[in-house]
Amino acid sequence: EVLTLLVLVYPLLQGLAVQLHSALTGSYVPGTHSIAFVNCLNEQIARDIARDGHASPAPLLRAIMDKRLAACVNILPKSSALYFWKGELEESTEILLLVKTRTSKIGELSNYVRSIHPFEIPDIVSLPIEQGNPLYLRWIEENVPRD
Fold this sequence. Notes:
The chain is an alpha+beta fold. Helix content is about 40%, strand content about 30%. It has a 4-stranded antiparallel β-sheet with strand order 2-3-1-4. Helix 2 (about 45-50) runs parallel beside helix 3.
């Protein structure tokens, strides 16, 4: 029983130890921040998602920023995408948003984007940031409020 309890509690204790070490030393805890990737049909929809939150002229990019779900959103130029949709091979041109945020905000960001994105199944994925410029990571921390 004790061994089972230790196995179950170990990840929690390890996480707490890493956070305590980070707080005492000022070091970065890998995975504290993430980059989310969001594909959009065109630049206007991309800007809409990042700004105002309506999938009509110019709201998505600002909406993410206005809601403080990200410290920064990059809009990358057109790229070609090949994918299967409803059993058929499709090809389209898309715009990619790179959303830099706290990992703890990924769920809220994803829910929000899904609620306003015009795609039936929006392409939203994220990766944790393991390392980076400490000053930049601190800047993300300062610009995206905690939950």
